[in-house]
Amino acid sequence: MAEHGLFEDRVVFITGAARGQGRAHAVRFAEEGADVIAVDLCAQLDTVAYPMSTPEDLDETVRLVEKTGRRIVAEHGDVRDRERMAEVLARGVEDFGRLDFVLANAGILPAAGAQGADIAAYTDAIGVMLNGVYFTIDAALPALLRNPDGGAIVITSSAAGFKPVSTDFGTMSHGAAGYTAAKHGVIGLMRHFARSLAEKNIRVNSVHPGGVATPMVLNEAMAQWVGEHPSFGESQQPLLGLPMMEPGDVSDAMVYLCGPAGRYLTGVALPVDAGLTVR
């Protein structure tokens, strides 16, 4: 069991926890001593061209968290369903007794292929990554507000919160528009909650990764889309000549923003992008 971690006996709620960044955050927070409430859709959306997470992926997150010695409540759920988020939270808080951190991480990238050209790709992007973020935080607030220590919320936005996914006429798609709009929009939600919750000692920030080596980015459909639209690939080149980020690099930022080193930070939109958005 983790001992004397930054988050010993704290509890974190993570959406999109079955794989990628969400899984990395779950394992990292568990290594720091936290118990985990995890949720993921574990199903396919018709507007997403690449394979999405599966129940087996969430099972693997459970295994990895339990391997650290910490506890985890893991459920299937759609962040677009506010009541389902509340149900998952209620079960986790009943088991663990408290809630300290919320990582609103669930995301999709419905830009590629014929699927991205469907108008439903726009509404799914907004539903998951803007409305879903709001529902996640709103469902978690009752438990956070009961915590005498306050807490921290971190929203996963993107470099696309500062610059659009579309780079020219050829890269326009309904899904790309929805992704860009949602990732910009959650900056507004972050600032709304940061101002509103400061008096309750709840800090709220957003993280804006560039390209991260996850199944959302590294898949056949996205590779084909990037190959067909070289301007997109050119626009995603960071200033620093570093390898592509791993999910754990984003987890470092999450730990910082939730931990004691980040105690003076709220209302911050933090790029973690090797300089991508400087261009």
Mean pLDDT: 94
Distance between the termini: 44 Å
Query: Which term fits the overall shape?
Result: globular
| Largest β-sheet summary | 7 strands, parallel
Q: Count all strands and give the number.
A: 7
Unreliable sequence segments: none
Can you put this structure into words, describing what you see?
The protein has 279 residues and is an alpha/beta fold. It has one domain: Rossmann fold. The protein is 44% helix and 14% strand. The chain has a seven-stranded parallel sheet with strand order 3-2-1-4-5-6-7, sandwiched between helices. Strand 2 (35-40), helix 2 (55-67) and strand 3 form a beta-alpha-beta unit. Helix 1 (20-31) crosses helix 9, helix 3 runs parallel beside helix 5 and helix 5 packs parallel to helix 6. It is globular and about 50 Å long. The N and C termini lie far apart (44 Å). Belongs to the short-chain dehydrogenases/reductases (SDR) family. One of its GO terms (molecular function) is oxidoreductase activity.
List keywords for this structure.
single chain, 279 residues, alpha/beta, Rossmann fold, seven-stranded parallel beta sheet, 9 helices, 7 strands, globular, NAD, oxidoreductase
Brief digest:
The protein is α/β, with parallel strands linked by helices and 279 residues long.
Describe how the helices and strands are arranged.
Blueprint: E1 11-15, H1 20-31, E2 35-40, H2 55-67, E3 72-76, H3 82-96, E4 101-104, H4 113-116, H5 119-145, E5 151-156, H6 174-197, E6 202-209, H7 220-228, H8 230-235, H9 247-258, E7 269-272
